[in-house]
Fold these 2 entries.
Entry 1:
Amino acid sequence: MKLRILLADDHEIVRRGLCALLQKHEGWEVCGEASDGREAVEMAKQLKPDVIIVDIGMPYLNGLDTTRQLLQHDPHFRVIVLTITDSDQIIREALDAGARGFVLKSDAARDLVSAVEALQSKRMFFTPRVNDLVLAGFLEKGHAISRNEAPNLPTLTAREREVTQLLAEGKSSKEVATVLNLSTKTVETHRSNIMRKLSLHSIRDLVVYAIKNNIIQIQMPPQIQRPTETTMA
Amino acid sequence: MAVRILLVDDHPIVRQGLRTLLEGRPGWEVVGEASDGIEALEKVQSLQPDVVVLDVTMPRLNGLEACRLIQQKQKPSGLEVLVVTQHDSPQMMREALDAGARGYVVKSNAARDLLDAVEAVSQHRVFTALARGPQAC
């Protein structure tokens, strides 16, 4: 019987690359592809895959909250988190969310097959870079990754985190209501509660909070270096 | 029409996805891959591709700088650069075109736009598409 894998990444080009990589492995099949976290949760409920590969930076519902929702629905789901960043905070949050594998996107071509094999054998998988980070944190701080760096996420409920992400993505209360199948009034109540709990005063503050706490991710453009007169001559 | 393509992106999994898409088109050949701007310059020199599919945010030398250097050295050969990037921004698109790129595609829509874009730039036509869709040029 084949190992069934669900992929969740908002970039189709990345899913194509992942599919090409995974389908080379005899005995594995990609049973579904989701382009955001909400779709991943729905597809996982229907398809009941053996392994779910989840990108962290997805629209509508980020990979960390997707992992939380997946495991809340079925604690037997085995989730590998794919990420472009390898900060202590991201690693800790992924582990707290219940991920059993953690693979850097830049290393996916090398490590993802090993990660799926590990989860198939009921083991966990962390890339050498993540292992180094965890070990370095342990040696430097005397314990694994510091809890002092924990973000303020626990003060928000799962629903409030969903609303926070959607608002930080630039959606209006009405649009958030449509996505979450709530009334606009309920969303506005959530919004007020979020602002009060976090002592925020504007949507700009909310966006900054969402970025700092890995609810949304942004990629900075490269430093543009204009040619100088000397180099142009 | 035969088109020889060089893929440049620091993520192998993205290069794999791009390759899968491009190799489905008869006559198109991915002749090589590079993982940063410096390697791209070397491969352009040695492989002489028709089209370079170039990411922007890369280590060592970013795609815009690489694009400028490629244009300085290779323009007479007719080589064209197509920027494929995560940046869905008119400003970044302008920077890429100013650097000498002939095309600009946003990564989140690469599956939709990439084949049309490569076809256009390989015929020396401009192709630009932000996430909302291609623009007539």
Note: Chain B has a mean pLDDT of 89.
Entry 2:
Amino acid sequence: MTNWLRRHDLNLANGAVLLFLWLFFIVFMLYPLGYVFSNAFFTEDGFSLVFMKLMFSSPNNTIILANSVNLGLAVTLFTTVLSLPLALLLVRYNFPGKGLLNGLILIPMVLPPFVGAIGMRQLLARFGSVNLLLLEMGVIDQPIDWLGGGSFWGVVILESLHLYPIMYLNLAAALANVDPSLEEAAKNMGANSFKLFTTVTFPLMLPGYFAGAIIVFIWAFTDLGTPLVFEYREVIAVQIFNMVTDLHQNPMGYAFVVAVIVLTLFFFYLSKRVLGGGRYEMLGRGHVASAARPASATMTVVAYTVVLGISALALIPHLGVLLTSLTHRWFLSVLPSEYTVKFYQDVFSHNLALLSIKNSLLLSSLSTIIDIVLGVTIAYLLARKRVPGRGVLDALAMLPLALPGLVLAFGYVAAFSATPLDPRINPVPLLVIAYAVRRLPYMVRAAYAGFQQTSVALEEASINLGASPMKAFLQITMPLIFANLIAGAVLSFSFAMLEVSDSLILASKEQHYPITKAIYALLGRIADGPYIASAMGILGLLLLAGSLFIAGRFFGRRMGELFRA
Amino acid sequence: MMVSVKFDSVTKILGQSRAVDNLTLDIGAGELFFLLGPSGCGKTTALRTVAGFYTPDDGRILFNGQDQSRVPPHKRNTGMVFQNYALWPHMDVQSNVAYGLKMRRVSEAEKKQRVRHALEIVHMEAYAERMPNQLSGGQQQRVALARALVIEPDVVLLDEPLSNLDAKLRVEMRTQIKDIHLKIGRTMIYVTHDQAEALSMADRIAVMRRGRVVQAGTPHELYTRPESAFVAEFIGGTNLLRGTLEEVDDLLTVKTQAGIVHAKNGVKGIQRGDPVFCSVRPESLRLKPAGESRGKVPSTATNELIGEVLSMMYLGDNEQYSLRLADSALVRAVEYNPPTNKTKIGDRLALEFDAQAVVVLPQEELGD
């Protein structure tokens, strides 16, 4: 016992903080998940696999499961194909304007894909701009059903165009982490460029690649907004969303959520242990010279063509949304026939739109404050103290990366019904907590990186000269990690503003709608609904773009480290 | 104020190992005291318990007889110089130095004057407005020193302060720190693994190994009268000839496989029949052509062994030899002001050394 105490920094203050953190995670993460599990496996007669059997025996359900997995895999594959050349070009070559292109690649992140879906629908519909343009030009004489096949490919394309920047950030970081001397050694042994890449570079990149791939996979696998807008209902996320309303009558919802959790954990495990292998990047990095070399003129042209080409493709949905937001008549013409800024004014006069903006600002501010407090505390304990259960604390703080918002929100509705926190009465507390939990990993990582870069000796020197530990922390460490905290907070805030699945599930009354749910609700209204929704989408886009720009300014090149598992 | 520091049976456990193991040491007020030892011997841990960053798991730290073990580090009034300097990158030089005074609520005017004075002591007054990253390693080192001194600490703690400097600067800084110690007369505890640094600067040295002090004393005592093979080897380097103690008389007689060795000095408590080392410093060996002394009866006050030259290294003011004795043990010898030499590799030479220069030590395993 004394030995155990000796090995840890445990005093009253640390103990109280730890206890509080444990309670938080237990109440708002483990308990809802446990509740879902127990309802999926326990009936009034005790343990039972009846719901599981039901789910897998119905061919309908297995198709739905397969659709979701396929969606995740297809998006992962597409994003990889899109971002690998980008990473190779931008990490390995130096050319004028590289910084600008680097920024351009990140732009698609700034629009929730379900908003992009509005624009996409406008462009690719049966009588949308693309078909009309092709008809006019005489290329086709029958409109093509672009979004056909149950819209599966529409969802894949839209999500891929939204998520490839995350894949790119991870691939670029993984590539930059490969020790150039390892590649030089391979060249020295006679490997040509192709062999070099397949036998040394790519294997070394794998752990970093899978860390990003799993995030992309889980995102696509559980995305709710995009399939909803494309009316692609045969996926697990939409099914669960529909079951939330009658979850007390129909326990199949629990079974579906359990299936999502199990599959998510399975793929997470696969990516970490089996595919990701060891973390080679940690080994033997004496000196890492920059592996970038000046690009030849041809290479520069190639780089610009590839980056601009992919970016143009990725910006099509944005363009569609922008055009939709600027018109009130866009039928049967390639481009809108009239333009107006009326709908931007409407956003600020329309009751629902304005209210939802206010709601979102409040909810996101509160959740960001929680994230800062929890994130800095957890990062501090992990980086600076030897507390008991350190590994578990780390795992709990990172778990939300693998925990879809859909699952969390479903768990909250299920577990907290008929309690003081019942989201159907007042969803505000749980919305705030859901946002906070979902973005906590970003904050912990940002703060942890700050603590890691700031030597403990700096704090000790201050204590040695007479500052109390608290003073030393506030005067020395805080200013030095401030940039990290800003970056983490900005990201937490802006992603909370555009959080889709938990907003759609938890907010049930108009007075509590956050922006995303308001956009979704407006889309369903005929008349001017979609136009106001588009205008709100564009405003959200500008907000997220500004935030990412600020975060990038503070966090610099290490942005990629935030978006990985 | 001059403060004496006492380690009273201090034990500190880090992870699974006893980083400091029942350490007892008395450091006099105003002394420049060195903790010397190989890496991992616990010297830095010992220093950090004085600063209060570690609380002893057992035992006490006393300043002037007063128990400090439960006093938090920011209330101890020690001034520490960190190995990597730990200058705060977001403050300029004078803010770094003024920090401790600010914590002590020293008036603005006095603060200014004391910061200036501290920077003068370390010859950095011209750099008051620079940021730490605009300074060279040696300059950062001196700012760190000024920051520790300006608060007029009871004890100055230096954790390998010179280890990040290049060789030339290191030697210069030795003199400077010693001068500063003379000038301010405060108790200083200095941790290093560099025995030359310790020998050239210390009032007293404690040699540490595996969390314990193996020997403490003045540099001269440690060098001339080591009490263990570890100390003899670690301080200055030595030759250890393996043998058995045959006779204990006015002189000690040791039988080695290379021949009989007489010694004037021995560690207390060794007895006839014990396996021992004879420690002979390389510079105590005199090299002569092997033939010259043949036939002469070696006096008991002088020893002579025969060795074969394996290699020679000419270093200007001295020449270092590596020789193999009859029992194939290797021996190092140093000749100062080496004559224009005609010795060749493979030559057989006589190694002559006085019984006075030999210390007989109990055998032990070496290494950390």
Note: The mean pLDDT of chain B is 89.
